[in-house]
Amino acid sequence: GKLVAFYVIGCTLEFVLADALEKKSDTVITCGGLFSNHCRSTAVATKQLGLNCYLLLSCFDQVIQQLSFP
User: Fold this and answer.
1) In sequence order, which residues have a C-beta less than 8 Å from that of residue 18 and are 6 or more positions away?
2) CA 20 to 30 Å from 24, out of 6, 16, 34, 65?
3) Which of 25, 36, 41, 58 does the annotation list as catalytic?
4) Secondary structure E strands in 1-70
5) Cα separation of 45 and 39, whole Å?
6) How would you class 26 by CB atoms within 10 Å of its CB: exposed for 0-12, middle for 13-18, buried for 19 or more?
């Protein structure tokens, strides 16, 4: 089966990805806000390393309303 690495914010991305590769994980899951730089960085880095990436994004209704098209 596939191995998945799940990490929360607070871990240094470099170490998280090194650990995921060492454990032969093929997927990284992380969480953050809708405009999270951590999530963006994780998505880019996992793509460069050939890993799958799933982001659990949180947001507020006000943010969604601001992003809505008229």
Assistant:
1) none
2) 34
3) 36
4) 4-6, 27-33, 52-58
5) 10
6) middle
Q: How far apart (Å, rounded) are the C-alpha atoms in residues 51 and 13?
A: 14
- Computed over its alpha carbons, how large is the radius of gyration of the chain? 14
Whole-number Å distance between alpha carbons of 54 and 63: 21
Higher pLDDT, 2 or 34: 34
pLDDT tens track for 22-67: 989 999 888 888 888 888 999 999 999 999 998 888 876 555 555 5
Non-local (6+) Cβ contacts of 68 within 8 A are none
| Total-model pTM | 0.71
Phi and psi (nearest 5°) for 3? -105, 135
